[in-house]
Design a protein that fits this description.
The strands form 2 sheets. Strands 1, 5, 6, 7, 8, 9, 10 and 11 form an 8-stranded mixed beta sheet that branches. This protein has a 3-stranded antiparallel beta sheet with strand order 2-4-3. It starts with a helix and ends in a 20-residue tail after the last helix. The longest helix has 24 residues, at 51-74. It has 11 helices and 11 strands. Residues 330-337 have low confidence and may be disordered. The protein is α+β, with helices and mostly antiparallel strands. It has helices at 3-17, 22-33, 38-44, 51-74, 80-93, 103-117, 131-134, 167-176, 219-234, 287-292, 309-317, and strands at residues 121-123, 128-130, 154-156, 160-162, 183-192, 204-214, 240-245, 250-259, 276-278, 280-285, 301-308.
Length: 337
């Protein structure tokens, strides 16, 4: 090989051996083989080599190019991005743990634990649902006035919408489990309605739903289950009342109210000066809902309830404005919620 080319080869072999990172390797590759790199510069100077030496010089130059390309392609170096990730991971793992679960998640997990102990299965489902399962299978036909009670957010009207209630999961489960009764299921999830945001309402909110279908299920089972929920989360002295309410998917319907945790029944902006906060809706599953799912309502009965998980969390954590839960303020500490 040409003596000058041999010197260049030795020089760059040493440089390649000393490479540590992929950035260094790429920089050297450009230095050698880039448009204005050394190898192209050497090829451009072949015209200056004496005619009798051009053939050998060209062969030597091609050999140099091939050897350096092979050395670069076989060089093992550390990727810079991995080094950054490793350094970052090391820093993160050495930081003190200062985060905590969202208050709604904390309450949801408490309720999940209650219902698992009662033999319930815990489910989840998509948030985009069909009109059939959000309304029709819950005894809310297209012309039913109950639809006016829920200002729905449609994705593709009239078929697909964001679920307005976790009862939608109930209608899916009843259809899927109609041949696998009895059924005991609980599930939490986000729900969506086009509502004006204030202290106690939000257009994105959370519900906790439970459904039971078995033989000889009655109102006593429903009230007993809800009483257990209230006492587990708020203690044995919690004050609760049950009022007759209308919900199309149940008959009879019951609305559980808890004495306002902010004013203790005296009246305040949070409870709209009523002294009580509505915590959800419940009742015995309407026979039509069972029949639409393919369940014989003369053999099977059941109850269902959907609780406002945000309000349950607010009462437990003494949060006086639902917007706090959705505000993204990370400055709170667990004992301040």
């Amino acid at each position: 090989m040409n003596q000058n080319l041999e010197t260049i080869k030795n020089q760059y072999q040493a440089k390649i051996v000393s490479l540590k990172t992929d950035k260094e390797l790429e920089a050297l590759r450009i230095e050698l083989f880039g448009r204005n790199g050394l190898i192209n510069d050497l090829f451009s100077k072949i015209k200056d080599v004496p005619n009798e030496e051009k053939r050998q010089y060209g062969a030597d130059l091609n050999q140099l190019k091939t050897e350096l390309e092979n050395l670069l392609s076989n060089k093992s170096v550390e990727k810079s991005e991995n080094k950054i990730i490793n350094d970052l991971s090391s820093t993160i793992y050495n930081l003190p743990k200062i985060g905590h679960l969202h208050p709604v998640t904390q309450t949801e997990r408490q309720l999940n634990e209650v219902f698992r102990k009662l033999g319930f299965s815990v489910y989840n489902s998509p948030e985009i649902v069909t009109d059939e399962f959000n309304f029709a299978r819950l005894n809310v036909p297209a012309n039913h006035p109950a639809r006016d009670m829920q200002d729905s957010i449609y994705i593709k009207e009239p078929e697909y919408l964001l679920r307005t209630q976790t009862s939608t999961i109930e209608s899916y489960l009843l259809a899927q489990k109609a041949k696998e009764l009895p059924l005991r299921a609980a599930f939490a999830g986000s729900t969506f309605r086009n509502e004006k945001v204030n202290r106690s309402n939000h257009f994105v909110f959370h519900q906790y739903q439970a459904v039971v279908v078995d033989k000889n299920v009655n109102m006593k089972d429903l009230i007993g289950t809800m009483d257990l929920m209230f006492k587990t989360l708020y203690g044995p002295d919690v004050v609760v009342r049950y009022r007759a309410k209308y919900y199309p998917e149940v008959e009879p319907g019951v609305g559980p109210d808890m004495q306002c945790f902010n004013c203790h029944g005296k009246g305040c902006p949070l409870c709209k000066y009523a002294g009580w906060i509505e915590m959800g809706g419940s009742g015995m599953i309407h026979p039509k809902v069972l029949e639409m799912a393919g369940i014989d309502s003369k053999v099977w009965s059941g109850f269902a309830f959907g609780m406002g998980l945000d309000r349950w969390t607010m009462a437990q954590k003494n949060i006086k404005d639902i917007r706090t839960l959705m505000g993204g303020n990370l400055a709170y500490k667990p004992n301040e919620l």
